[in-house]
Write a structure and sequence with these properties.
By secondary structure, the protein is mainly β. 0% of the residues lie in helices and 50% in strands.
């Protein structure tokens, strides 16, 4: 079992930045793909970013490419999402997820989820 706890969400003006953190505990973290997803009110959960267990492979949704960066510190069992140039359409609850596999980019590929952290971007 893996427990994930997100932090770092909040209210920010358009053009601003936030860094989300996701602390993992429990089962081995270092061999797991880690991902970020987001869900806006009334909409389905969508992929944002993913990183392989080694950190050597990353993928991003087109809507965040060039603005968001995923990173991980396996020693600290923590994954981060640096969000720059935020837009009102980035407003959503952001979820951290862990996979039993070394790589995954769809929600179905992830086995453990955090409780989510709210990000609100004002115009």
């Amino acid at each position: 079992q893996v427990q994930l706890v997100e932090s770092g969400g909040g209210l920010v003006q358009a053009g601003g930045s936030l860094r989300l953190s996701c602390a993992a505990s429990g089962r081995t973290f270092s061999w797991s793909a880690m991902g970020w997803f987001r869900q806006a009110p009334g909409k389905e959960r969508k992929f944002v970013a993913a990183m392989s267990w080694s950190g050597g492979t990353t993928d991003y949704a087109d809507s965040v490419k060039g603005r968001f960066t995923i990173s991980r510190d396996n020693a600290k069992k923590t994954v981060y999402l640096q969000m720059n140039s935020l837009k009102p359409e980035d407003t959503a609850v952001y979820y951290c997820a862990s996979s039993r596999a070394s790589w995954a980019v769809t929600a179905k590929g992830y086995d453990y989820w955090g409780q989510g952290t709210q990000v609100t971007v004002s115009s």
